User: Fold this.
Amino acid sequence: MTEHKSTNITWHEGIDRAERYQSLHATGATIWFTGLSGSGKSTIASALESELVRGGVFAYRLDGDNIRYGLSKNLGFSKEDRTENIRRIGEVCRLFSDAGVIAVASFISPYKEDRDAVRALHKELGLQFFEVFVDTPVEECEKRDPKGLYAKARAGEIQGFTGINAPYEAPENAEMVIDTTKVSVQEAVTRCRAMLESSGSGRPRWGRRGYD
Ligand code: ADP
Assistant:
């Protein structure tokens, strides 16, 4: 649990969420992709974000490396730093989903406890949270090696690389599991959209594409 350093602070209530969602014709949620490097998280998340936005849905992708250029630029890859990284991103996702946006998060997020903490952050405010386990076998991820990181890890140039010399704790209760050796990017996106829509989020803001 992160230490709460600030004192003398008071939560200030604003517009009610139901009214916000109704006025904006938007229902927020967080869809969280977890899996090994090279499993296909960013590829699927990016395609999902594009489809949603082009279809008139407020969606915004938060992606591992991108976040480390800004919000988490002062964090590395130790267990503590990974935990803090996921905590920060979880809070951002919670704000986005409260605001009516579909937050599309794509992070290795190897520790179950960290992912569960993000889930709890959402649930305590009644926000929707979907965990998608991109369950691609490590052999396949290593074969793809889109960023050349497995080769570097094998050569000893990267320490603490998830799947090689750092652990990955697979989800046990993910809302969806996708093995990308069996499921295409498009099929994965279609499944994710169906999951979002069945829960009331991820629908076009104005009932159909474009503005009425
Ligand atoms: P991650 O974000 O998990 O590190 P990336 O999305 O960056 O992974 O890379 C996954 C690689 O696997 C990409 O080169 C992508 O084209 C490839 N790939 C092949 N088949 C699939 C699939 N069905 N779903 C997602 N990615 C796939």
